[in-house]
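Example with several molecule types.
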Amino acid sequence: MFLYNYSILASLPLLILPGIVCVQLEPTFVENAKKGHTNNWAVLVDTSRFWFNYRHVANVLSIYRSVKRLGIPDSQIILMIADDMACNSRNPRPATVFNNANQHINVYGDDVEVDYRGYEVTVENFVRLLTGRLPPGTPRSKQLLSDEGSNVLIYLTGHGGDGFLKFQDSEEITSQEMADALEQMWQKQRYHEVFFMIDTCQAASMYERFYSPNILAVGSSMVGEDSLSHHVDPAIGVYIIDRYTYYALEFLENVNPESKRTLGEFLKVCPKSACISTVGVRTDLFLRDPDKVPVTDFFGSVRPVKLLSSIRMDTEFNFTDSPLRNNVESESKPNKYRYVPPLNKFSQNSV
Amino acid sequence: MSTFYIPLVFSGTQVIKEIRKWVYRELSEKNRFYDDSILITMKIVLILCFLVKIQLVLCYGNDTFTEELLIKPLFSDQVYAHFQFAVTWDKDPTIKKYHHTHLFPRALGEIIERHNIHELHISLTGGLWRYESWGYPVVDAAPGAEVWAWFKPDTVDIDQNWKLLANTLSGLLCSSFNFIDVSNSISPEFSFRPRGSTDWTTVNSTWLRYASLPREIVCTENLTPFKKLLPCDSKLGLASLLNSGFIHNTKYHSIALHLRPICRTETCESVSLELQLSVSLVYDYAILGTRNWSFKKLFGQGLEGKCPLSSRSNIYVDLSTSDSKKFDLTPTPDEVVTSIRGGFVNKYALYHISPNFLSISGRYEDDNEIFVKKPPSLYANQYLIGYGQERGGIVSKIYNNHWSALEVVLLQSIAWYVPVYLHTLKIVSNGEILKPTILKYIPGKQRERPYYIEMVLNLPPLSETLISVDFDYIFLKWQEYPPDANHGFYIGSAVVSSYLPLAKNFTGLPQDSSTIYSSFNASRSGYLVQVRTENMVITLPTPDFSMPYNVICLTCTVVALAFGPLHNITTKRLILKKKCETTLVQKLKLKFETIRKQLVKSKSD
Amino acid sequence: MKMSTLSSKHAKKKENTYFLQSCSKVVLLLCLAAFLRYLVMSSKYQTIIANHFEISTPICSWKRVQEGLFLLSRNIDPYDGDLLHETPTALIFYKIMSQNVFRDVSLMFIFFDIGTALLLYAATRHYAKQFHQEHRDRTKYPKDVHEYLPSEGYYEKVPLYVLVAFLFNPYTFLGCVGYSTAGIHNFFLALFVFGMVYGSPIVSSLALAICSSVSFYPLILLSPLYIYYSQVYKSKTKALLVVLYFLTYVYLITFYNNSLSKSFKFINNVYGSIWTVPDLQPNIGLFWYFFTEVFDHFRELFIHSFQINATILYLVPLSIKFSNRPFILTIALLFLITIFKSYPCLSDLGFVLSFLPNFLHLYAFCQQGVIVGVILFMTSCLAPTLWHLWIYSASANANFYFGVTLAYAIAQIFLVTDILFAQTKWEFTLKHGREAKIDGEDADLSLE
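Resulting structure tokens for the full complex:
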């Protein structure tokens, strides 16, 4: 008992810390409260399988790296990757994915956590993830636990066409299904604002049907246009990143959690001369002026701090029920444990 | 300013009491949807716990943590590195609360509690362990993912718990364990008996579930959460050597997690919970570029010091190949341990990890010699026979190089999409038909249950035994094929278990210990090996995935072709009708006439 | 008076010699057929033939029966898995037959095939005689239709033709050589036809009950059986008795099945799998590709409608239309089952095709004989070729084989509808004469 008290005592100074931290963060916090979002989530999806679609994995991992760098923790990023590129036997450098032929940045990193991978990346799982209608027993890392205060970044990349996006070359999600999923999210108060970003051919067709409020959408190409890849890495042998994501990433690399760059600037990255396709933007559902919204509203993260006016103290707390107490108690047991031989000895007679 | 409430209004002992209550309440909540602030608090408490480590160890009982690394240059052109981490937790198994852990990962504690688990064994492996040239590993693992768990006998719905456990594990280790359900799980009778100590009077295999996912790819995303289960994470100690770029650049890499109760004392009056975490790597000299290995070459960096929480931090280098092929170690080992085990003498160079920087390297005196391979006593292969996509066969080949007969258990779990015919089972050993001592078989069911074959064989000395069984290629519904249907479907590896009388090429740990150190001089009556064979891929015939509408239309047309005439025959009568041969022109004329007549009529109206 | 007895004696003598002659012919044919079968069975081609999906479907594959017998011998419930689709009684029957009665499995299959041929011969002989008798009085018919009536040697020719059509039909031949248990099912179907034609309620109802217990499709043959007794033998009580017998036998067989397997698991394995088509192995029927490709949420709907189509959809209308010709009704229903059942095999078609010589008199009214013959020939050649291209050399895909099965089904449909049309036209012609004239003017026959 004494020891236990000691441990709590030792932890006391740090228990007070959140209060201090909170006081220090005060100005930003009030700002955030005005903006109305209290937490950030990111759903990053690569829908393409097969080695020659390396670039799509590089796309999604680039965005993953950026949002992680800007402060969204892994627990609030849902990463869906339809195929394994890093440990693919065709990858000359295992456990790496590069988004540049210079191989400066390994976007796969040393601490990546992929939540949905391989065959798990299906339209059904994606829609279930967004709408929260997951089967019982789904682990937390595979759930989008956003609420009415969440700013959600949805990034999709893969092969698409007019009004659909292919998943793993075997099924597709239509723009209507996408719009309905977002509407369901809105009705279930699963987001505060959504930044929908898609890098695929005819990307603009995917957000055309949206009808839920507070969505800002950007697509790499207009209807009728192809989205193009940026460059090939001769060492890997395939195209390694798409143009739009390449330039978006170039922009994001110069953003840090404190910077004041706005979404308005972000929406202007990759002009037609660089992208070859026209970047499509849809702002009519979004209530704020993108020029006044910091990029970090979607790509960064609000610290998970909440104002509490009082702490409810449960005075009737029953200490006898404490698991720790139980742990300390140890009864003397008769000798009944034993090792079971891991393999039986069998009789020799044949059956 | 802020109205954030800090319990500073209290003072002295009151503060401690109140905080304790508060923390308590949060900790004991079943459904943990913490307030965000509490999350931070929790984290800070954990950091604090880390800072005041030793004192805290005492207040949670005697948790111990050991970290070890075994480096073994193999007889072939590879070097084997095995990291062995073990956490033991002196926990009374009668108390079913696992929330309060210290060195033991709490995430796992919660899983044990929620799913009523007695033992849990997981491995995630890339590549295949080549028994015939590498000998036996410390821990056997099948290519891909493999899980087996013993549930406590009082578990209510084991199948349901197993499914949920698999789901939870998929979140814990970022793997696709969620594809495990009853349709690919079996309860083997002999092969996977409990490894730890139990108080059960009888062992009932209905409490066991085993499943393997041969297709599973293992990469950094599995290693990241795995490292988080270690008390020092990957920041200090041997775990800091686990750099993904160097781990996945190997011929074989396997991460494994083995959880079991072990005897706390010799007399086994009480049990502790033991968690073994291991990483096995086999580096190929061809990939390294040289036979001279070093920490920098193998792991990309040297060792900065031990994990301060560990009670044993050792590195061993197996010197068994040094006799035939001499290599020098720098720095010189702290001591050289001689281990006599199962009739074989082996020498190990031992290094105690100090806080100083350490980088061990092995240097061969002369570079281009060929080793003499010593194949182990027992190893096995598995392959497919037949051509085309109609009928085939699965053949397992077991080699017994031992001079006496060996009793082995062969376990095959064959997915439901590979229906096998047991009456075609043939066991031929050195050209003679061998009868199994025991044969267990549960036929599979489409979409419900795999085929399970387990047999006990008494292999004659110095023999090569072929076990073959025929199967049919099956046709699935088009929506059941994976997106890359033409890649093929996997059949998991067979497991050949046996007690070897001699510890030749054997590095495994004895059942009653959890460290490599305790395996030195640990002679026992038998040495358990569980040889895993290759995975197999079969390409099932595929339908045309773009055809559904066409097929539905065409087939329905054929059905309608029968319906039309039969409807006519049965509902109509034959009658004679006057011939009125009207040509097209006549018909048109007739029509024109009627229209004209109508027009005239309307005009007259 | 004397003359008549003499002539009748003479006729009898003549008949006897005929009978002896035909008997020797039959024996010769049977021996030849058995020998040919045995020859192929003992060659290396046996396994190749047996492995073909056209011959061994999941329902009638001997390999699965062997697996069941093996599991039974090891005390494993064969109905625990889903490979076996035979009933427990059938399994015991095969066990006794293959282990106690016949040492050689090939002999068992030959025996049952020869048995089927004999039963068919006897049944058609009896039926042809009846038919001949019925149309003997030529004065009842217009003069110009005499050529459509059965000729003098009709009842001698037809059964012999049937025998040849059965024994030397490539479909039945391959089925027998490939150890298709459908050949043994056909034996009981032939027994049913034999019992029905000879008017033996016990034999016919027992045979039908056995057939229906193996797969539920023959259940619908109860209708022609009932009609046969009530129309041909003009006895309602006999007809009702047959139904009663049938129900009793079915009950007894089910009871016995259940007591053998000690659980009702076999119901799902036997009838469940025939009804719901879980095994999508290609065969010559219409089900496999359809249910491979159909969207999951429509599966139930289509399964039930396809099975209804194969069983009761045509039962009532055909029974009403052909209530005076129950034999033709039986053949038509057998044909429709063969076309639309979930796992048809070549033996099934071979069996029904061997009834065709019974419709010799309709030949003049058939219009699609050539088309049907050509399609059947083409599909029989193409199916194994395209199968090989798809499965072994991977240079074709499932669509090719599916196309062949479609054509094959169409040929059978044309054949059965053609015969039924011909039958109605034949009846019409016998009644109204050959000349299609109304008031001396040319007229057309049409359905209205």
